[in-house]
Amino acid sequence: MEYFLQQMINGLTLGSIYGLIAIGYTMVYSILGMINFAHGTIYMLGAFISLIAYLAATTIGGAPVVVALMVALFATMAFTALWGWTMERVAYRPLRQAPRLAPLISAIGVSIVLQNFVAQAQGARVKPLPPVIQGGFTLMDGDGFSVNLSWMQIIVIVMTLALMAGFSWMIAHTRLGRAQRACEQDMKMASLLGIDIDRVVSTTFVIGAALAGVAGLMVTLYYGVIDFYIGFLAGIKAFTAAVLGGIGSLPGAMLGGLLIGLIEALWSAYFSIEYKDVATFGILIMVLVFRPTGLLGRPDVEKI
Amino acid sequence: MTRPLLAVEHVGMRFGGLFAVNDLSFEAGQGEITAVIGPNGAGKTTLFNCITGFYKPQVGRMTLSHPDGASFLLERLDDHVITRRARVARTFQNIRLFAKMSVLENLMVAQHKRLMAASLFSVAGLLGLGRYRNAERDAVELARHWLERVDLLDFADVEAGSLPYGHQRRLEIARAMCTGPLLLCLDEPAAGLNPRESAELNVLLRSIRDRDGIGLLLIEHDMSVVMEISDRVVVLDYGRKIAEGTPAQVKGDPAVIRAYLGEPDDAETGRPPC
């Protein structure tokens, strides 16, 4: 029982991170109808920028930990947002009218470029960061096994919930959100009503990238090791989360992220840790076969 | 003489070898309802698509002149610029509402640009400044005004997609009006309406012309609507203008009758029936 509870906590933490990345996939899909396969690498970029910003702030600036974390957070969000904007501008916008395969390929190209740039610029070896935030609670003390909830896990979960809540509120209640929902339903019509589509698309990329950047920051702090390749697997898993929840659906992305995190944690706990990715992607296949619209997605009904 | 609101000059739009619109010129005035009629495939919707920026015509010029003297060459502008700066709005033959948004939200989206400008592109909104809230209130006020005009006030919070057909038509007109147009293009607004709804539509369109003083450009098949409310009628056939004038003039024009009813039949031309 204690073991199960501990794995639930671990799974929720991991799932929060997937959920944050999944939001970017689902948002871009709902507006442009394309899967931004370079999204995972943005998360990797976020991880590196947060590491660099944090180290720079503490060692060069001599800032206290809290300040350094804030600096890292803002630097990460700013840089990943900028990258998201640039990527859309350079790699996707010129291909907006092209067949669907073209932006997909350019997305893969963008991610390869970024990955290799980071590998060259930062070195291909694993980068460690000593634990920044330590300690936590012991929730339960069973015989020989205690359930721990670390501060870091609390931070990850709370931060994710706050970002998701803020983001959902933005979509539901602000002008920007209204414009985004309008574009999602009928982009041409939105344009005819005077909405600048390009700006809405840019904003979508900027927000999605910033969220992925935060996920990168949290993973750096949580696991303490990053390398230039983490974006690939995390990206595909977040994509699985988005598909599981129903791609195009915002609550779906969050739910899917949490579920994937839980499945991974529980599978590693009770079955074999080596096969945890098999479990995750097995789910992707099952969802695509049996419920392509995902858990919360609504099927596209075509009127005839 | 002042410049007409919309002047279409020698516009041509070709798809492959087919001229959907061919050397078309006409004018639409402010405070007037100009109807564009013609048989199916005459190029009416293509013309609308050119005016509202969906298509870029290969030849010709379309000038929109505001009362304050500003003028815009529509064929050079992007569609959202046409709505926002040249102030042309349109509705569609097949209704294109945001079905999953509420009626009120549909009208708010139409005011997006003005709202964004008022709130410094959302920056002020994020800071919760008063200006943002004022702009939002004005926008709701305008939306309410139009809901009242189209008699949908009771449906403000209903999902647009669940409204009855006739209501959706009226909502689409209200939404177009919320963009603050000087020229409103209506693509078959009476299609699918019953006679009572159609009569209500006539009242609404007249009130838009008389109260708001803007120009209306109307594609319509329903001749009862066209004849009753139009000030001028332009008749197209195979992309060309074959007649223009008041409804009464057009009704009696032999070219129009020929386009709608065909050539005098075979017996008269002496060709054997096949």
The major beta sheet of chain B can be summarized as:
6 strands, mixed
Structural class of chain A: mainly alpha
Would you tell me which CATH topology of chain A applies? ABC transporter involved in vitamin B12 uptake, BtuC
User: Span between N and C termini of chain A?
Assistant: 53 Å
Strand percentage of chain A: under 5%
Specify the helix fraction band of chain A: over 70%
> What's the CATH first level of the largest domain in chain B?
Alpha Beta
Give the low-pLDDT segments of chain B. Answer: none
Task: Provide the gyration radius of chain A in Å.
Answer: 19 Å
Distance between the termini of chain B: 54 Å
Per CATH, the class of chain A reads Mainly Alpha
Assigned CATH architecture of chain A? Orthogonal Bundle
How would you concisely characterize the structure shown here?
The complex is a heterodimer of chains A (304) and B (274). Chain A is built from 11 helices and 4 strands, in the order ααααβββααααβααα.
Structure description:
The complex is a heterodimer of chains A (304) and B (274). By secondary structure, chain A is mainly alpha-helical. In chain A, 73% of the residues lie in helices and 5% in strands. Chain A contains eleven helices and four strands. In chain A, β2 (136-141) and β3 (146-150) form a beta hairpin. In chain A, α1 (2-32) packs antiparallel against α8, α5 crosses α6 (175-185) and α6 packs across α8. The longest helix of chain A has 31 residues, at 2-32. Chain B is an alpha/beta fold and 274 residues long. Chain B has two domains: 1-87 and 181-274, P-loop containing nucleotide triphosphate hydrolases (Rossmann fold, 3-Layer(aba) Sandwich); 97-178, no CATH class. Chain B has twelve helices and ten strands. In chain B, the strands form two sheets. In chain B, strands 6-7-8-3-9-10 form a six-stranded mixed β-sheet, sandwiched between helices. A four-stranded antiparallel β-sheet of chain B has the order 2-1-4-5, covered by helices on one side. In chain B, α3 runs parallel beside α7 and α6 (130-149) crosses α7 (165-178). The radius of gyration of chain B is 20 Å and the shape is globular. In chain B, 42% of the residues are buried. The mean pLDDT of chain B is 81. At the A-B interface, α6 and α7 of A face α2, α3 and α4 of B.
